[in-house]
Design a protein that fits this description.
This protein is α/β, with parallel strands linked by helices. It has two domains: 11-105 and 112-246, Aspartate Aminotransferase, domain 2 (3-Layer(aba) Sandwich); 248-368, Aspartate Aminotransferase, domain 1 (Alpha-Beta Complex). It has helices at residues 10-15, 18-31, 38-51, 62-73, 89-97, 116-122, 142-152, 204-213, 235-244, 248-265, 293-302, 331-339, 351-368; strands spanning 55-59, 80-84, 101-105, 127-133, 155-159, 167-168, 171-172, 179-183, 197-201, 218-220, 223-224, 279-280, 286-289, 340-343. The strands form four sheets. The chain has a seven-stranded mixed beta sheet, with helices on both faces. Helix 5 links the parallel strand 2 (80-84) and strand 3 (101-105). It is globular and about 70 Å long. The two termini are 23 Å apart. The protein binds pyridoxal-5'-phosphate. Pyridoxal-5'-phosphate binds at residues 61-63, 87-88, 90-91, 133, 159, 161-162, 183, 185, 195, 197.
């Protein structure tokens, strides 16, 4: 027992871009332009080009990307937004911060993503939008969702914080809805060296409004046309993101290669992510489900293998959401939260690392029976 496997290692990951980062920083220092400069504009254009999308607005973080997308829609106070019960709490917070009502919808038990059939059942006269989350790096099943949205004239906002480069039927996450909201938090598949986020959108009017909203409601200096915020993508983070964006596909390909090893060799008693041809999964998180999750996590730690839980407490069980939600009965989300375990699957893990994790995991099974 000598091989230690960390869950991830951001230090090693970012060290591989060290020279380019240092070069970016010294140019930045020489230039002395700190906020909303050329690097932000270039990154926005490059992010749009990557997605074949019309417009990108850089913002401060992923929560703001969601929040400002909703703000941009100017929904009436108290209107309902459909959102998965199985997500990170940020998705739901964005809705609450806009004085809108989150209506939680259960996921499919095998894909962990929002169940389109249940969306249709949750739509009321008061529904204005569907906020989908492409959880763990697997896209939601967008065709039926787009159909429901069209039928009821609902906006679609995509939480792409875990889905940079993920595809559904060959189309990139973030390009299906009216808005694609991204986080570049350091752990994400495309991660900055601090907080950062972006919104992609299709309409020129939305783009113009988002640029105002992120900057005090002003496009022209000292002329404020809407009630805005301060949520700008940092110039330095934009320059770092420009270094990493050309490597996003390489990062995703590597993670997919590691995921394929788990898929092939991991004992079938561990419930693995479903793979199907329509879904290009980018494995922001490679999770398994196991009824004895906590014991399994401890066993792996005892063998030098670090894991995480995404997430240990479901949103509807969070203290912060007490008394706010219409219902607190989400058994499918609960079951996922109770049994999910995230395994090492990062750009800095090698195939050998993953084969080691697999052999330790499979030994757990043999001890049980
Ligand atoms: C990371 C994340 C966010 C929030 O992003 P920040 O940049 O940390 O604000 C939102 N939704 C999901 C699903 C996330 O994983």
């Amino acid at each position: 027992m000598s091989l230690m496997i960390p869950y991830e290692n951001l230090n090693t990951l970012n060290k591989s871009f060290e020279e380019k980062f240092r070069d970016k920083f010294s140019r930045f220092l020489d230039k002395g332009w700190y906020v909303l400069g050329e690097e932000v504009t270039h990154f926005e254009n490059e992010f749009s080009a990557y997605h074949g999308a019309a417009y990108t607005t850089g913002v401060a973080n992923g929560l703001d990307a969601l929040f400002l997308s909703l703000k941009c829609c100017a929904f009436n106070k108290g209107a309902e937004v459909i959102v998965p019960s199985n997500t990170y709490i940020a998705t739901i917070l964005a809705i609450i911060h806009c004085d809108l009502v989150p209506v939680l919808v259960e996921p499919e038990s095998r894909t962990y993503n929002i169940d389109p059939k249940k969306i249709a059942e949750a739509v009321t006269d008061n529904t204005v939008a569907i906020l989908v989350v492409h959880l763990y790096g697997r896209c939601c099943e967008m065709d039926p969702i787009i159909e429901i949205a069209a039928q009821h004239q609902l906006k679609i906002i995509e939480d792409c914080a875990q889905a940079h480069g993920a595809k559904y039927k060959g189309q990139l996450a973030g390009t299906f809805g009216d808005f694609g909201a991204f986080s570049f938090y350091p752990t994400k598949n495309l991660g900055a060296l601090g907080d950062a986020g972006a919104i992609i959108c299709k309409s020129a009017a939305d783009f113009s409004k988002l640029k105002q909203l992120r900057n005090y409601g002003s496009e022209k200096k000292y002329h404020n046309s809407v009630i805005g915020y301060n949520s700008r993508l940092d110039e330095l983070q934009a320059s770092f993101l420009r270094v990493k964006l050309p490597h996003l596909n390489e990062i995703n390909t590597h993670k997919r290669k590691l995921a394929a090893l788990y898929a092939l060799h991991l004992d079938p008693s561990f419930i693995k992510p479903v793979e199907s041809p329509d879904f290009y999964h980018v494995y922001h998180i490679y999770n398994i489900l196991h009824p004895e999750r906590n014991r399994l996590k401890q066993y792996l730690a005892d063998h030098g293998i670090m894991t995480e839980i995404h997430y240990p407490v479901a949103p509807h069980h969070q203290e912060a959401l007490k008394g706010i939600l219409k219902s607190y009965d989400y058994p499918i989300a609960e079951k996922i939260h109770e049994t999910t375990l995230s395994l090492p699957c990062s750009f800095v893990h090698t195939e050998k690392d993953i084969l080691h994790v697999i052999s330790i995991l499979n030994a757990f099974v043999n001890k049980l029976f």
